[in-house]
Structures are given as C-alpha cells and as structure tokens.
C-alpha cells in the first residue's frame, strides 16, 4: 500500500493561509501558525487517484484557504490536472467572495463548482468587516454563479431569523435569474481562542424562540407546497428535521461515535499542496503525509480527538441528535461557557416541537381508532 487509505468522501485541499478579510470569529487566527507552500507536489494527484479507486462513489474536492480565491491560479492548475487524468470528482469552494471576478465565475460555472459564500446577513460588517452584497459588481457576480450556497455563523450579531430573511431576499433575486433557489447553511460560533468575546454575548432565549417558531411553521406546512417567501427558512429547518430523522430512525437513537461527527481526518481528509495531512483544515498542526503508514496516521488522528472525553455529558444533552459531540477543536472552557449552550438553544426547540407534534398526531390517530371500535 503506497498511500494512506481510508473510506474517504471529501478532501479539503488547503491552498494557503492568506486572506483579504479579518473576520471577528475566524477559527484560523488562534489555530494557524505556519504558512503553507504554494507549490504543488505532483504526487498529490497520484494520491487522489488511489483514493478514488478504492471508493465506490465520486470524490468531492473542496478548495480551502485562507481565502481560496487568492489562489485562483492554483485552483485552475489542480482542476486541469484532475481533468487530464480523467478523475471522477466534484468540486467546491468556500469563499468570502470579495475577490470574485468575471473570469472566476465563468470558470466555476464551466467546471460545475458549488460555491459557498460566507455571509452573515444585515450585520455582516460587524462580524466580517465587509459586505460583499453591498458592492453592486460583486453582488452581480455572485448571483451569476450557477451553484450557489450562502453560509452564516450565528452569533450575538447574527440571529437565525434575520439571517434567513436576508438569505431569502438574495434567493428570490437569484431564482429570478436561474429559476431555482440557493442552498443555505447556518453554523454556530465557536470560541477556539477569540480575542474579542462580544460576539458570544448571545441572547439564547431569542435564539430558542426563533427556532421554535420556525419549526412550528415548518410542521404546520408539512407535506404542503412551500410558500416561496419562506423557502430559506423551510430549507434550513428541513435539514434539521432530516438530521433528527436520521439519528432516531436510521441510527435508532444511539450515539456510538468516539470521534468527531464531521469526520475530519477520517472520512474527510485535509491535504495541503505538498502532500501533508492535517486533523482539520482550520489548523496548521500536521499529523502526517500521504506516504505514511495508515495505522501510524490513524493513531495520531485519534490521539488528537477528545470527543470521547465529553461522551458522558453529550449523552444527557438534548442537542445530541444534531451535534453528536461537536467540534474537536473547541476546548473544555469554551464548551462550558458558550459552545454547548448555543447548540442547545438552536437544536432543543426543534427537537421538542417535533416531539410534541408527533405526540399530537399519535393522540389524534388513537382517538380515531377508538371511535371506529
């Protein structure tokens, strides 16, 4: 066996650490201490080919930074090499969108890239320092992307409903151009060493109320045609509904994992251009290379994953079905002070609303059965 092998579905290709913004909640600021090389080791293509050959499904290659658009030439180089080898891959990129050009839009559309733009809604200047959608030419370019996702980080400056409403406005504009809506994603802020803590001063009650109200609207319209004006809200809650369904029906409500649910280092590999491997794409701590023996690599990955140490607390948490142990980069102090509390504020109302809805259906159906007897 020449290269490390695993059941891998995604490879994050870490292009470099340079960025053109200074987001207040950046995960990488406290965790990245070493610059990445810009030179591509051709051996990574051999590695990617072996990964593809040992897996039945196509591999997703996610280009990552820093800000990956600053490495557009490298992205073009890698895609050309992959195409030349006829490797079956899908491509994606996570970007702040600020450096997007017309040439990039044409390239991403031609190569069927999924482009995820990080944007936090109406108060984005307070979280990210810059609003890409306030610049007409950048807004036009983003809306021209054929596979667009918007992703926000929930914080004291970005609450679920206002973010989704802002997403909705953009999605309607996007739909008028393409005939279909955008994809949406919401993450919860993580304190991996934030220099400023004001974004952690969250009104957890507000978060919980908004999540409950949105879930109740979702349940009221369950099985019915989704009103276009509620598309993004519906799409987000539906994601959580399916996560809950997967956990309790497919997984039978059991949490057997002893590693982070994201799969980083295991089903998700984090690879730089030289062939070094990392436990996560948001850290500069290496755990090996593509030439390492699998078991030595795996041992280092597992040694750095402390998910199992939180197992007792997680098993009694109402957010377990969604969170499943959370991020392995978040330390004990941050978990106790903000991380887990925000997870519960987001996810517990969804769980409780769906449970109550199911109970009402059960009681209603039992009543019908008794009336027929």
From TrEMBL:
Keywords: Iron, Iron-sulfur, Metal-binding, S-adenosyl-L-methionine. One of its GO terms (molecular function) is oxidoreductase activity. NCBIfam families: rSAM_more_4Fe4S (TIGR04085). This is Radical SAM core domain-containing protein. PROSITE patterns: RADICAL_SAM (PS51918). Its cofactor is [4Fe-4S] cluster. Belongs to the radical SAM superfamily. Anaerobic sulfatase-maturating enzyme family. PANTHER family: ANAEROBIC SULFATASE-MATURATING ENZYME HOMOLOG ASLB-RELATED. The keyword Hydrolase does not apply. Residues 5-217 form the Radical SAM core domain. InterPro entries: 4Fe4S-binding_SPASM_dom (IPR023885), Aldolase_TIM (IPR013785), rSAM (IPR007197), rSAM_sf (IPR058240), Sulphatase_maturase_rSAM (IPR023867).
